[in-house]
Amino acid sequence: MHDLALHILLFLFAAAFIAGFIDSIAGGGGMITIPAMLIAGIPPLETLGTNKLQSLFGSGSASLAYARYGHVSLKEQLPMAAMAALGSVLGALLATVVPADALKAVLPFLLIAIAVYFGCKPNIGEVERHHRTSKLTFTLSFVPLIGFYDGVFGPGTGSFFMLGFVTLGGFGIIKATAHTKFLNFGSNLGAFFVFLAYGVVLWKVGLTMGAGQFLGAQVGSRFAMAKGAKIIKPLLVITSIALAIRLLADPAHPLRICLGI
After folding, report:
1. What is the DSSP letter of 190?
2. pLDDT of 122-134, one tens digit each?
């Protein structure tokens, strides 16, 4: 692929900054970065591979910011991040041979369900509650499952991790957000190595966008820590609905093809 012009790289940097800001709070940054790369003329497979590279900077930046202020211990969370990475590797390998049409068909409705759940429970996540499953069970089952999904397809991964930490782990909203980012880092890392092995990572684009992601995530995570559930929950609801609408608006979405619309 030919080198991208400077103004295209600046456009991608700006898109990554906005994505990093949103993703560090509520997830869903991929709904900005992936369309931006496609608009820039980057082929779909290279877009997916490069997106994992630049996402590492955003999720890593947010993880460090939350850890610095004591909302998560990265050392203690390493086993979960490793399981997310393992699941993501398996998912990415599967994605190279199996189409993700089934996931594309059902995902918008899952995202809408998450938005309704958080939107209709005004007090959820404001205080920590008793967990509904043990940490070991959560680490060995839910975490690699969502990591697997991130490797196969990806959009909404942060929302699913957030839902798990709040409903199963009993975490408050800030703690859940902080823990979600490091698991996102793990799943991004696992899928990245698979795409790297297939030679579909564009380093110049990925590093440029990675710088934008890093800065955006620093600003976003600090904003989230300052505002707490007051900003995180509404943005989570809005992001989930926006991502569902964008997926359903795609003419190639399986449901639209099935209905002929």
Report:
1. H
2. 665 555 566 678 8
**Does residue 13 or residue 167 have the better pLDDT?**
13
79 in the Ramachandran plot: left (φ > 0), alpha (ψ -120 to 50) or beta? alpha
Q: With both helix axes pointing from N to C terminus, report the angle between 6-26 and 203-227 in degrees, rounded to the nearest 10.
A: 40
**pLDDT for 125:** 52
At 139, list the tokens. Answer: 């680490």
Calpha distance 124→111 (Å, rounded): 17
Q: Which two tokens stand for residue 130?
A: 């008793």
Phi and psi angles of residue 256, each rounded to the nearest 5 degrees, phi first? -65, -40
What is the spatial distance between Cα 225 and Cα 121, in angstroms, rounded to a whole number? 21
For the chain, report the end-to-end CA distance as a whole number of angstroms: 34
What is the rounded (10 degree) CA torsion for 243, 20, 219, 12? -110
Mean pLDDT of 192-215: 93
* Of 194 and 249, the one with more pLDDT: 194
Q: Which of 30, 60, 68, 82 is nearest to 182 (CA)?
A: 60
